[in-house]
């Protein structure tokens, strides 16, 4: 008989700082540590069919999956925390339910036999069917479905757009029956700074709204600046009808790797397992690796400064996976990451005239950096500033990593400075350029924006064995990395670039698509057409980011010499806590050191 799937639903009230995504991911880590196989689903109630056409200022970065799905950034949290590979269907939106589940098409065909097609039951049934189908898809590389599916409902209880999903989930909880459904409600318990009192009213009202829509929480996860007082827990238990032992606090911690440990210390796993009737089939969770990693992260003190030159630097979530990948690499190499955010347009000559202070500040940060990273992006704003950043890094032997557009602008800069093609450009930026270094490659549409790019995991074949990128990847013949782009290096100009010293060390299987560039005589100047940040994990940092951090610390040769693969470097993580002074005890000057934010980026 097929085992029955268990479901954990995470909903949210008014939440500040730490949100539902990190909570849902941490719950998954805790259940996985109990010996359960875990999968995840994120529900976003907006009408977009996916996140692909959204500005980063709307919902942060667009996270790309192996199958090419353009999804909410929370799926990146799930993949990083649980080390799984999700599919595009693990992200549900209102648009998908109406379009992909074909409710409207069925109505047009007459499949409903003349009945009035309504939100209840037709849309709510489609939502439930989607959840049940996707929950059965294995995401951990093993055969068969997972044991538990963690579902995060985006938005806030009370939102009009969420109501069909809440109704569907209420029906779903009744359908799967007691012992198979656990509801965890994340809510804010603010602290009045004047008197220091923890206020329970926002949570009370949030739970009341949830119950009025047919859902009753089994566990309360309360976001606050400090652990809840016992009398506050008792009050929440009384007014929200939740056992006191099922009220847990998500209080401020130095970094988010502490959250699974926080939940474990408050026995959240026991509460979940009781609701799901899984006590007899699980083990006591072991989070040794997480504990070591979280504590190492807390005590690092030797800084490495990375200049992030981008278009959306005013919103760190726009580059969330990039900052996480930098963090993974810096912790692996025992360095404290400091990100200096530089708006690319502030480096341009026009800014020197219009806003000289911003211009001077931007260049001061760039020149103080140990390494430079230019992430992906679209459009022409800030492109010239990115080109100037690449030129500065190339000429001054500063470690440089260009991702997607970052690689393309490095090629443009090389064409202008070394090949002498002053008007060299991308046809995305200047359709009429006489020297198109970067061109549209016909794998998508020029007119439709959604899901038209070269998307998902594709193979890159190394062309040069004795190059830095190949060594960082363990001298493999090919690698699989995720892509998201429309424009690529013009293959007709490759021979000229190579003759001038720019090496194309990685290409696709046809040899026409350039995937990796390197400057052999530079300490670390690498551009990649793919997005290595999407496959970086806390215990398995991306080789490209490891290389950048190592080069920025003057340790690249040592990193490559120590091992032809990254395995030996990563094995140091999770094998016990070693502080930056090389001892097992914390240095005295680190007693008050934490770094929960890198220039405003919570990690």
UniProtKB/TrEMBL annotation:
<comment type="function">
    <text>Catalyzes the ATP-dependent amination of UTP to CTP with either L-glutamine or ammonia as the source of nitrogen.</text>
</comment>
<dbReference type="GO" id="GO:0005524">
    <property type="term" value="F:ATP binding"/>
</dbReference>
<keyword id="KW-0547">Nucleotide-binding</keyword>
<comment type="similarity">
    <text>Belongs to the CTP synthase family.</text>
</comment>
<feature type="domain" description="CTP synthase N-terminal">
    <location>
        <begin position="6"/>
        <end position="278"/>
    </location>
</feature>
<dbReference type="InterPro" id="IPR029062">
    <property type="entry name" value="Class_I_gatase-like"/>
</dbReference>
<comment type="pathway">
    <text>Pyrimidine metabolism; CTP biosynthesis via de novo pathway; CTP from UDP: step 2/2.</text>
</comment>
<dbReference type="GO" id="GO:0019856">
    <property type="term" value="P:pyrimidine nucleobase biosynthetic process"/>
</dbReference>
<feature type="domain" description="Glutamine amidotransferase">
    <location>
        <begin position="316"/>
        <end position="549"/>
    </location>
</feature>
<dbReference type="GO" id="GO:0044210">
    <property type="term" value="P:'de novo' CTP biosynthetic process"/>
</dbReference>
<dbReference type="GO" id="GO:0003883">
    <property type="term" value="F:CTP synthase activity"/>
</dbReference>
<dbReference type="InterPro" id="IPR027417">
    <property type="entry name" value="P-loop_NTPase"/>
</dbReference>
<keyword id="KW-0665">Pyrimidine biosynthesis</keyword>
<dbReference type="InterPro" id="IPR033828">
    <property type="entry name" value="GATase1_CTP_Synthase"/>
</dbReference>
<dbReference type="InterPro" id="IPR004468">
    <property type="entry name" value="CTP_synthase"/>
</dbReference>
<dbReference type="GO" id="GO:0042802">
    <property type="term" value="F:identical protein binding"/>
</dbReference>
<dbReference type="InterPro" id="IPR017456">
    <property type="entry name" value="CTP_synthase_N"/>
</dbReference>
<keyword id="KW-0315">Glutamine amidotransferase</keyword>
<dbReference type="InterPro" id="IPR017926">
    <property type="entry name" value="GATASE"/>
</dbReference>
<keyword id="KW-0436">Ligase</keyword>
<dbReference type="Pfam" id="PF06418">
    <property type="entry name" value="CTP_synth_N"/>
</dbReference>
<dbReference type="Pfam" id="PF00117">
    <property type="entry name" value="GATase"/>
</dbReference>
<keyword id="KW-0067">ATP-binding</keyword>
<protein>
    <recommendedName>
        <fullName>CTP synthase</fullName>
        <ecNumber>6.3.4.2</ecNumber>
    </recommendedName>
</protein>
